[in-house]
Amino acid sequence: AARAQNLAEVLPVSFDIGSVEELPYADGAFDLVVCNHLLNDLYDPSKAISEFARALRRSGRLVILMLHPCFYNKHAERDQATNGVIAASYFETRSIEQTFEVGGLTSPVANTAWFRPLEFYTEELRTSGFVITSLTEPHPTPEQVQVDNWWSKGFTRPLFMLLVAQLLEK
Q: Which of 4, 27, 42, 91 gives a 20 to 30 Å CA spacing to 122?
């Protein structure tokens, strides 16, 4: 749909297709990389993280929004007494395969999300030359919880993690 719009006339935007493990851009081509819910879709995100570092300029920033590796579990498990992932499986590579319902429609195919412990992601960032400058866990405001009952039932623990990292001098 994005390609059908002629945004190039209004904004300096281009739409490129390529592998996140071999980005089709020169070294230092960007000052900002936004990675929105991608890392959980990759069995091994190591190469993608190092490619982000390669494509960023010195002191460039990487913004990652992802499913929270500490607390995200299957929809069916969210009503159980546990508030997170059991330690025995947390420190291993684990996957969750499930369908999603949006607006009353169920996804036709199950999605597989991959998880590793938080220390895996921080170490991959460090070895790729990044320093973490911010780590937050997006959550609803008290007003949102009051207005929409879904938040009380669907958001019983932190589901997301927003991480900002800066590339150290190359």
A: 27
